[in-house]
Amino acid sequence: MTAVEHSSGKHRGSENFPVGSWLIAKPLRRHVHAFYHFARTADDIADACDLPAEEKLRRLDRMAAVLDGHPGEDAPAAAMRASLSDSGLTAVHCHDLLAAFRHDVTTPRTANWDALMAYCRLSAAPVGRYLLDLHGESRDGWPESDALCAALQVINHLQDCADDLRQMDRVYVPLDWLAAEGLGVDALLARRADAPLRRVLDRMIEATAPLVASAQILPACLRDRGLRTEAAVIAALAARLLDQLARRDPLAERVKLGPWSIVAATAGGILRGLPARGGRQHA
């Protein structure tokens, strides 16, 4: 029995960025996939439109209990617990994610940019931190990893700002920035972004740009060759996608990268992920 019989429609093939790709060392991929399945299941619970809030919270709490070793039927949480036992890691990053999904259930509006960054600390940063811990990397790289993960999260919120409101009554665009332009959340339901809303979206993009810039430093912080390359590829993809969001309207279309942009960003990321001459390589 799994924790949820619903699906948000999101899966590995629809992600913007690679999840547990071939760049991750083969012995570690099963742990990454267990983490991904755990996170996706919890996300599906929080996003399930046919579940009342109380039931969503009950199911998320059940996942937390099983993760901590309490009796209960929850296959993704049990598999994650077994993975953590094998890898020697704690459950802190998993619990942070569960806290983020509870926040989605109880707090469907985002007051300001600081609140959005606090949310990203729970919803996004744990993914990067888990990967660094799994690879035995220094936690000195956490700030750059957090920046990359927060940037990816905001990019996703920008892409989905209309659907988040329309389908789940959820708004990640800062309310104070909307109010400063004389707008309410209904502005996100328009067919196109008018000039005031465009200024709000551009403000989010401008605030995200320093995160993307910080993320470019992450590969140099990592010893593992595969993880370093994956980080470089994802950072390059994020930079290109943020640039596209600055040029296109996420209300009028699904803003995503074309195949050639993906190829170019991936190739550039792979080159950036290679160690400098004489540098150390880690399998």
In summary, what is this structure?
The protein is an all-alpha fold. It folds into 2 domains: 26-106, no CATH class; 108-276, Farnesyl Diphosphate Synthase (Orthogonal Bundle), CATH 1.10.600.10.
Describe this structure in words.
The protein has 283 residues and is an all-alpha fold. The protein folds into 2 domains: 26-106, no CATH class; 108-276, Farnesyl Diphosphate Synthase, CATH 1.10.600.10. It is 64% helix and 0% strand. The protein has helices at residues 26-47, 53-67, 75-87, 92-106, 113-123, 125-134, 142-159, 161-168, 175-180, 195-215, 218-221, 225-247, 259-273. Helix 1 runs parallel beside helix 4 (92-106) and helix 10 runs antiparallel to helix 12 (225-247). 39% of the residues are buried.
